[in-house]
Amino acid sequence: MRRDVFQAIADPIRRDIIELLSDEKLSVNEVAERFEISRPAVSKHLKILKECGIVRFEKIGREKMCIIQPMELIPAFLWIKQYNELWEDRIDSFETYLNELKNKPEQL
């Protein structure tokens, strides 16, 4: 089953794993050590990230290394970016409105 990037980023633990792996590749055990959940639970999250194409595994010696595939995050980034711009425009408009109210003389 192929999952999509939005399923990957929907869970806060998976977002934390993505952030961890954005700095360096880590073994499955090294990833698991950073969380207060069981190793099987971390493995399940890593499996979902792999199914989404965000993480790949590479065997280096006896270690199974987790390597981020950042290009797979682009669809989510582009989707979020459009809403970020929308909200920035709305917040700017609201700020302008508040400034107008503040500068308007009080009426009795």
Explained architecture:
It is a single chain. This protein is an alpha+beta fold and 108 residues long. The protein has two domains: 5-70, Winged helix-like DNA-binding domain superfamily/Winged helix DNA-binding domain (Arc Repressor Mutant, subunit A); 73-103. The protein is built from five helices and three strands. The longest helix is centred in the last third of the chain and has 30 residues, at 74-103. It is elongated. It starts with a helix and ends in a 5-residue tail after the last helix. The relative contact order is 0.15. The model has no long low-confidence stretch (mean pLDDT 88).
Specify the overall morphology: elongated
Q: Which CATH class of the largest domain applies here?
A: Mainly Alpha
Q: Give me the Rg, rounded.
A: 21 Å
CATH architecture designation of the largest domain: Orthogonal Bundle
Question: SSE order in H/E notation?
Answer: HHEHHEEH
Question: Strand fraction band?
Answer: 5-15%
CATH superfamily of the largest domain: Winged helix-like DNA-binding domain superfamily/Winged helix DNA-binding domain
Lateral arrangement of strands in the main beta sheet: 1-3-2
The parts where pLDDT drops under 50 for at least 5 residues are none
CATH fold-level label of the largest domain: Arc Repressor Mutant, subunit A
Mean pLDDT: 88
DSSP helical segment count: 5
Give me the count of strands: 3
Helix content: 55-70%
Q: How does the major sheet shape up?
A: 3 strands, antiparallel
Which structural class should the secondary elements be placed in?
alpha+beta
Number of individual domains: 2
